[in-house]
Structures are given as C-alpha cells and as structure tokens.
C-alpha cells in the first residue's frame, strides 16, 4: 500500500511540472540522460578556467547551484558536475558550497551553476554592506541548451539584468553552443544605439572554447573602455584649486560643456571624458556636501542618494568617517588639512617705535610733566632763594625747567651751581643719551622691515594663546567655547587676513592656501601652523556599489602610472606660495612699501620744522608769542 502511495505522488508531481511548464520552454532540450557523461565537458572546462584564471587571485571560492526546471536526469547531471568538480578541485583553495541561507554572502569570486534565468533569480544572493568595496566576479555556468539563439539571449539578458541590480559588472556566462564548443558572454551598459542604464543591455560574445583551446587567453573581459558618447550626470562641489566652473550655472548649455570646468579635478575630468568617451550633464551643489547616515546627506551626496547623479566630484575626501555610505574611487590627489593663521600680528615701523609707550605710559609721562612744572613754579614762587636754588636751581634761570626743555632740542645756557642740581642734570643727560641711542637703533631696525609677533607652531600653542577658531562647524580637535561659526570659506579667509590685533585662526587644505596666496601675492599675510590636522585624500564618489567605480578606478590608475595626475596637481598648486612672508622671494629688493615708515617719519619731522619756523616768524610780529617762548626758557624775577 505504501509503495502505491509513493508511486502516485511521483506521477502527480511529474504531471504538475509538465502542466506548469511554459510554452517557450517546450523548444528547449535539457541534458536529461542519467547515464550519459555530458557533465564532463562542463566540469573539465570550469575546472580549467578556475585553475588558470581564478586560483592565483583569491583563496576562497563560492559555488552556488540551482535547477529550477529540472527533471531527475538534469538534476543528477548538476549533482555529478558538482561531485566531479569537488573531486578534482585544487586543494590549496578554500571552497564553500552555498545553500541559500540568509546569513551567507558572496565572496570576491563566485561560480553559479544554473539551468535558466529563473534558477539564477531564485538564488538567495546577499551583497554585504561593508565599508570595504568588493570587486565581485560572477562565473555563471548555464546548463541550458537550445537551438534558438533568441531564447538563449532572453535568458542571458535576464541574468545580466539581475547582475546589474547587484551592480556587478564582472560577469561571464558560459553556454554550450555545440558539442564540446562553449561560448563566453558578458554585457555592456553603454553602446552606440542606447545609453540608458538598465533598460537596454548589450550582450557581447567575447571568447570561445573549441577543440581544447580558447580563442582569447582570458576568462573575464576587459573593463568597459568606451561609453560611446553617452551622458553621465555629474554633481560638482566647487572649490579652488581643485574644481572651478567658468560658465553660467543656470544655462543648460553651459552645464553640458566640459570645457568650462577648471582646476585639478576639472582637468582630470576632461582627460577621463576623452579617454572613456562620455558626455556630461553637470549640476552644481548649492551647499557643502556632507554625508549623512540616515538619508540626511546634503549637497552632492544628497543627489547621489536620490539617484539624480551618477557621480560627485569636487573637494570630496575619501577619509570621511561616513564614507562607507557611498562608493568612492581611488585617491588621485592628496593635501594636508592645516590651521590657517595670519603670519604674526602686524606691527609697522611707527607702531613699533611707539610700542614701548602704550597709552597708559604716555598718560603717566604727561601727568608727571605737568606736576613737575607746577611744582617748579610753586617752589620758585613760595620759597626763599636758598631753598629754591637747592631744589630747582636759580630763580631766574630754572635748571629743572631747562632739563625738560633739553629733550626738545634746546641747549642749556646756564649750568647749575649746586651739586644736587648738577647731579640731577648729569643723570638726566645720561638717561637721555642712552634713550636716544637705543631709540635710534630701534628706528633704524624698524625702517628696514616690519616686524611680526611670532605665531604658535602647534595646535596646543593655538589653544594656549587663546586663538579663536573660525570654521563652518564644530570640530573635535578644538574647544567649542573658542569656536566661531562662519560657513563661507572666502569670508573666513578675509576675516583672518584682516585680524591685525585679534587672534583668529581658520582651517583648510594646504593647496587651497597656496592657491589663495598665489592669487593675492601682494596683499596676503596668511600662513599655516606646522602641525597638520590630518591628510586629505581626494576622490570622486558614486552610488553604493556602482559599476562606474571600477571603470573610473582603472582609468585613474593608468593616468597615475603615466604621471598625468601628479603633473595636473603641480600645474595648479605652486608650493612656494604656501607660506607668505617666509620665502626669499618675498624681499627681492628694497621697495617703497618697505620704506613707508621712513616716509611717514620724514613727513612728521618736516611738519615740526615748518611749525617751528612759522613760530619764529610769528614771534617777530606777535609779542605775546615771544613772551610765551621766553617763559619756557627763562624765569623772570620774583
């Protein structure tokens, strides 16, 4: 009774499968003979291709098998193929059989044994979400045999679209064309007749195995090298000297003209467009691109996340902490990220001469002079002749008054007779001699070149000297209470440049500073702190697991190996412009700008001399002026 039930279930299963079989499948001829040895050509060729082209590149191989429309003979053929493959497999390579468990995932190299497009679609393929960019390779053994090339193309096109959904471009389908003759197929997204990704796929027959030899010595085809003039949607994040745009941002024609981009990445993009033969549709980010973890990215990253752009370029760093949210190319330029400060607080010649006498000192000197003059007049007017002579000298010719006038260039006409007054006068003359010599030396040194207060050379030194950090957002490497938020980088540069007395600091790439100083050679005083913050690696970004990444990586590597990327960087960034006022070219010769302090002092002396000359003329016509001048030199009788 049990045997009858089992036989009934078996017959019912066969009848159900035959009823569910599509009409298009009736023309297909499967390998159903259980006793034949048709699995051996598949197994021998697959084993040969793995040992020759995969074993040297990876230590782990994943094998996945699925037979969607399998009769017992075809299923047994798949089983024998796997058994034959495992028996003769290279023992030095790790092998993993994939059974479609949810926790399983792909590896760098994967073999699929399927009978149709339905079998491939029903595999539980899981692309790992990691920060590491896997370069997946799919080697698909399609056991489907049909006389219709249209049916074979239909199945392969569906398989390639499924691979495209996973953003895998290194895909090879091995299909038996005739007895012991196999064809190797791949797909291209871009062709001369179509440019839209996903809708149309060009199937390419790139290799053939016949009579024990391959037509071309390779398993995986070369990367796509020609976009056939298809457009790519590129988001630009502008920032000199890396990327600039010289066109009208609202003009659609300018946004399709690649000649209007400038800078390091602009030149690189033109070289890539010429080598890969693609056109551009630019969109320019209005805000700075910031990667967000929860679909809250801004700028070009927001356009990538929304699918509006194929790639983003322009001052984008591959060292960003959230870089794993998107795919990014290899680095083609690097620069240090540093603190930017004014090259010392500026003190011109006049300011240096007056630096020893701050306003409070000048006030104290003036008050002492006034008090001294009042005291002298009081002693002369209210004391006897003996006391007056001991304290301030003779009544008629006050020695103390003469000492004050001496500093203005007036000679002493009568020497004091008392030792106390003589000692006071001698000390005063010695002090004035020393002060005059020191001041003249300081004046000579000041007129040669302007001086600057030294700036800190470390990050800790900036905090110690209370420098205010001007930036677009709060940073972990600087205190929040010493940070001032300003979004525009040009405005930040201008604020630090104009900080004559206030201690301000901002941050940017060293190349940006060099470009700014080159553009403002005559006026810029910006330099950088020796201790760098970190090293910036410049890359272009793509959608996660984008196929374009591998294509552009291959071409960027070629340009780098040829020295083109380094040549472009040196073309736009002149290293001698990084530190202003510290290069020997800063003082090639004595200029009028350097002697502006001398000109100012000369003008002041000429003004004083003209004033004195005018007063001498005025004393002849105005007796009151003459009496005031005499009063400064002589003291009349009591």
Automatic annotation (TrEMBL):
Annotated signal sequence range: 1-20
A Gene Ontology cellular-component term: plasma membrane
Pfam family, one: LBD_receptor
Subcellular location: Cell membrane
Name of encoding gene: LOC105225570
Protein name: Uncharacterized protein LOC105225570
Chief location bin: membrane
Keyword Transmembrane included in the entry's annotation: yes
TM stretches of this protein: 599-619
Keyword Chloroplast tagged: no
Annotated keywords: Cell membrane, Glycoprotein, Membrane, Receptor, Signal, Transmembrane, Transmembrane helix
Bilayer topology annotation: Multi-pass membrane protein
SUPFAM superfamilies: Periplasmic binding protein-like II
Domain (Putative ionotropic receptor ligand binding): residue spans on this chain: 34-225
Taxonomic superkingdom: Eukaryota
Organism of origin: Bactrocera dorsalis (Oriental fruit fly)
